[in-house]
């Protein structure tokens, strides 16, 4: 791929991964509740999930959706239900002072990677990236690999900002009531991502 194409992919990746969506809302909440370091597996899982999702899209999952729209519709319902479940978990999460008494923990790598496959924003990014930037002919798979790699390299610092922002917020919250209000607002913000799905 030529340098100007890679720069275009990088700009697209920064715009897509740096803007609000389910991943970034959950990272903000996780950063506030668990801190940046404990949120790292969640961030790594998002990057790994996007990497594999873009390659899976290049392999034909996007074509499968266009041929069988019911699969995409089913995924949309599954994604909506899962997003509401995650929003409820965020909204009802206890304050950090109560974490020892509960089983609350941040997402691990596998959970965060798997979430990308039911995340409509991730699908939109993957389909748009492959549809726009992949090269034809013998360079197709190399370009798909480059696109996936750029998303990993650019996406990590972009989503890190959201986890870092959450970590800063977590330092300002001092009472259980403030934590409950913050968790409720982050749960509502996560659930509001359904507007973009539908």
UniProtKB/TrEMBL annotation:
It comes from the Bacteria. InterPro entries: LeuE-type. Keywords: Cell membrane, Membrane, Transmembrane, Transmembrane helix. Its main location: membrane. The chain crosses the membrane at residues 42-65, 140-169, 181-197. Pfam families: LysE. One of its GO terms (biological process) is cysteine export across plasma membrane. The keyword Membrane applies. It is found in: Cell membrane. GO terms for cellular component: plasma membrane. One of its GO terms (molecular function) is amino acid transmembrane transporter activity. It is a multi-pass membrane protein. This is Cysteine/O-acetylserine efflux protein. It comes from Parendozoicomonas haliclonae. The gene is eamB.
């Amino acid at each position: 791929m030529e340098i100007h194409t890679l720069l275009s992919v990088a700009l697209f990746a920064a715009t897509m991964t740096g803007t609000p969506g389910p991943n970034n809302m959950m990272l903000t909440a996780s950063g506030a509740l668990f801190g940046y370091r404990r949120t790292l597996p969640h961030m790594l899982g998002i990057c790994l999930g996007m990497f594999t999702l873009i390659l899976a899209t290049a392999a034909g999952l996007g074509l499968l959706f266009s041929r069988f729209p019911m699969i995409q519709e089913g995924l949309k319902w599954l994604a909506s239900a899962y997003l509401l479940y995650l929003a409820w978990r965020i909204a009802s999460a206890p304050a950090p002072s109560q974490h020892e008494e509960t089983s609350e923990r941040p997402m691990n790598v596998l959970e965060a990677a798997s979430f990308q496959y039911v995340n409509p924003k991730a699908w939109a990014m993957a389909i748009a990236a492959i549809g726009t930037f992949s090269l034809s002919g013998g360079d197709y798979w190399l370009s798909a690999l480059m696109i996936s790699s750029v998303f990993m390299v650019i996406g990590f610092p972009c989503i890190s900002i959201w986890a870092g922002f959450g970590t800063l917020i977590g330092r300002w919250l001092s009472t259980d009531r403030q934590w409950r209000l913050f968790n409720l607002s982050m749960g509502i913000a996560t659930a509001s991502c359904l507007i973009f799905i539908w």
